[in-house]
Design a protein that fits this description.
Jelly Rolls; Arc Repressor Mutant, subunit A; four-stranded antiparallel sheet; transcription regulation; Crp/Fnr family transcriptional regulator; DNA-binding; HTH_CRP; WH_DNA-bd_sf
Length: 227
């Protein structure tokens, strides 16, 4: 992978200098996982930072045999940075929702480069603050109707990871159970709302190719209360 492509895929690296990008690519390790495979188990947090080159993953909280999806991440995102910085144990796993390609950079090497490149350090802080704001937004709409909350989730996924197509922004056809858990509504509510959005022509679900098309993004934004 060329450094230009590396910085284009990952917003975190958009301000890093060319030497930093080249160094990161040289020390990064490539990984590929099939759908359903555990990408990162709870006892492995803190060992490395992971970058999603392609595909989709979910971060889930585990408690015994029970698990709940906390977040869904796609191409261009990263995870594992907080465990590296605070060195605290985690009770979460990362699971591949689709075939996924990752790059990992060990804790020692990533911290080393943060000290060497202040622009990368600053950019990382910016993105972590953005994540905190997204969490605050979710808290603010916690008491909103299920349709508003689900629209907010779809819009956030579309804004963060959506790819442009002739039928609107396209995202992965996330299982309704995971979509419901991340949105904090029931699977039944998720199913009914997605069917209504499909009937209205705001979204289109392509089960064969595992794609959700966000056709009427403006209406979804309006429903989510972002306009």
């Amino acid at each position: 992978m060329q450094t230009e492509v590396f910085s284009e895929i990952f917003p975190l690296l958009s301000t890093a200098n060319p030497q930093t990008l080249e160094w990161l690519l040289n020390v990064a390790i490539e990984h590929e996982y099939p759908t359903g495979r555990a990408v990162l188990m709870e006892d492995a947090w803190g060992n490395a930072v992971y970058f999603v080159v392609s595909g989709w993953v979910k971060v889930r909280r585990t408690c015994g045999d029970d698990s709940v999806a906390l977040a869904i991440l796609g191409r261009g995102d990263f995870f594992g940075e907080m465990a590296i910085l605070d060195e605290s144990p985690r009770s979460t796993d990362v699971i591949a929702l689709s075939p996924v390609k990752l790059l990992s950079i060990s804790r020692e090497r990533f911290i080393q480069i943060l000290f060497k490149d202040p622009q990368l350090h600053h950019r990382m802080l910016q993105l972590m603050v953005r994540r905190l704001r997204q969490i605050n937004q979710r808290l603010q709409i916690r008491s909103s109707p299920p349709a508003v909350k689900l629209a907010h989730t779809l819009v956030s996924l579309g804004e963060s990871y959506g790819q442009k197509s002739d039928q609107g922004k396209e995202i992965f056809n996330i299982p309704f159970k995971d979509l419901a858990e991340v949105t904090e509504i029931s699977v039944e509510e998720t199913t009914k709302i997605m069917e209504k959005l499909h009937d209205k022509g705001w979204i289109k679900i392509d089960s064969v190719n595992d794609i959700i098309y966000l056709i009427n993004f403006k209406q979804l934004l309006n429903l989510a209360g972002k306009i």
